[in-house]
Design a protein that fits this description.
The chain is α/β, with parallel strands linked by helices and 296 residues long. It is built from eight helices and twelve strands. The protein has one domain: Rossmann fold (3-Layer(aba) Sandwich). Strands 1-2-4-3-7-8-9-12-11-10 form a ten-stranded mixed β-sheet, sandwiched between helices.
């Protein structure tokens, strides 16, 4: 009996189990665009048979991170949800770390305007690949999460909704900008995150610059939206993992006249660390479930 095909199948199954499944480089198309004199890199995933005018989700990596290490689980959600996913690459700051310019002290002297870049990238993708101009969404983790807050302040209508994971509102942002339009926004954050502290860092002890407590940052958006209702939901707890409480703020002003009210969600991962919290909850499905509420 020839066992070679069986052995091949077993080996492939083992590799997938160990985490050697196809990543961004294998599943996405690599592209570049010139912006502000720099060649910017990004990776685009389009599920097979994706129709014209499909939604688009941009995913921003963290400080020192890479688009090539983007979470492939979002592509899996895209397969069933029917949307495109783009993983842009941040540029190096004066310290040699890749990321998004949100005014960290190590980024002093960095002239890149990443809010303008991701907005320009979204428009480029919409035009070149016939993706939806209205159903475009932004998400990011850590430094990418900070970009969600900053973009929501500067260009709130550039994206239909925002999902920050372990992100922060830097104090300088509140001093320079204010929210001027209702924003559909969600935040997932661990209470034991020692990089992006749940209770904030008003004295800049961590070296990232002073930033607000997470509940306070979310309260600013709740107030902006004029939300009048709050519900508290305990997500089903995974065995041996941290419990997650979802605070949902409803009853606010709509994003557009006669449109759906701008909802705000805060996922409090009790005991969670600095991560996507995907071991404690199905983060990627929750992101798309939130975004899909605002599809035209």
């Amino acid at each position: 009996m020839n066992l070679k095909p069986t052995l091949i199948v077993l080996c492939l199954t083992t590799l997938c189990t160990l985490g050697y499944s196809q990543g961004v480089a294998e599943r996405c198309e690599r592209h570049t665009m010139t912006f502000q004199g720099l060649e910017r890199e990004y990776y685009l995933y389009r599920p097979a048979g994706l129709p014209a005018d499909a939604p688009l989700v941009l995913i921003l990596h963290g400080y020192g991170g890479s688009a090539l290490k983007g979470k492939t689980e979002m592509m899996d959600v895209a397969d069933t949800g029917g949307f495109a996913v783009c993983y842009p690459q941040g540029v190096k700051d004066p310290k040699g770390k890749t990321g998004w310019n949100v005014g960290y002290p190590p980024q002093e002297g960095m002239k890149t305007d990443d809010v303008k870049f991701i907005c320009a990238l979204a428009r480029k993708l919409q035009k070149e690949y016939s993706l939806s101009r209205s159903n475009t969404f932004l998400s990011g983790m850590s430094n990418g999460g900070e970009m969600c807050y900053l973009t929501a302040m500067r260009r709130p209508r550039a994206f239909k909704a925002y999902a920050s994971i372990a992100g922060l509102t830097m104090r300088w942002m509140t001093e320079k900008y204010s929210y001027k339009h209702p924003v559909a926004f969600m935040e997932v954050h661990g209470t034991e995150d020692r990089t992006s502290e749940w209770l904030g860092d008003p004295l800049n002890k961590g070296g990232w610059g002073a930033y607000l407590p997470v509940p306070v940052a979310i309260a600013r958006i709740v107030t902006l939206n004029g939300c009048t209702e709050q519900t508290v939901t305990e997500l089903p707890q995974r065995e041996g993992r941290n419990p997650v409480t979802l605070y949902t703020f409803k009853g606010g002003r709509p994003l557009e006249p006669d449109g759906r009210p701008a909802e705000v969600r805060l996922y409090e991962v009790r005991g969670g660390n600095h991560s996507w919290s995907d071991k404690d909850m199905d983060t990627y499905t929750e992101i798309w479930r939130f975004f899909s509420r605002y599809l035209d």
